[in-house]
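Thread title: Can someone regenerate the structure for this chain?

I was given the following input by a collaborator and told the matching structure tokens would be attached. They weren't. Posting the sequence so someone can regenerate them.
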Amino acid sequence: MTTSRMLPVALAIALVGGVAACGSSANSEAAKAAYDECSKGEKSLVRLSGSAVEVVVDGDDARAYAGVNKEIDRMGEGDVDALGDGMSVLIAIWGGTQCLVDETGYPGSWDQLKSGESWDGWRYEEIKGAGSATTFRFVATS
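Best answer:
Regenerated them for you:
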């Protein structure tokens, strides 16, 4: 193909790429706005990944979260010193997820979220990793 014949093809590819990037940019901006609002706080587990905002529980946080039920049981037995890192992680998960529910306009409460569910330009995914590692992902879709 000659250079003169390639020019229209190159322009078409650039145009399609530009239109796709605009949609992607809007999704990234929506995700960034939710992230900016929900990543505040000393113990935030909220992360931004392109057009997704995630509450990420991994590494030391996942290990601590694995022991939260024992902490709760001990607290129920009157051991006020049982409040530990697991409970801090649980509170950070709840806080981040609740904030994202509010910021994305989810029509229910945080405990009603179902992986794969979509609403008003957002999709929710819950991704289980090894052990107690989990990612709660809110993806901007439009």
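The beta strands are 46-49, 52-57, 118-119, 122-128, 134-140.
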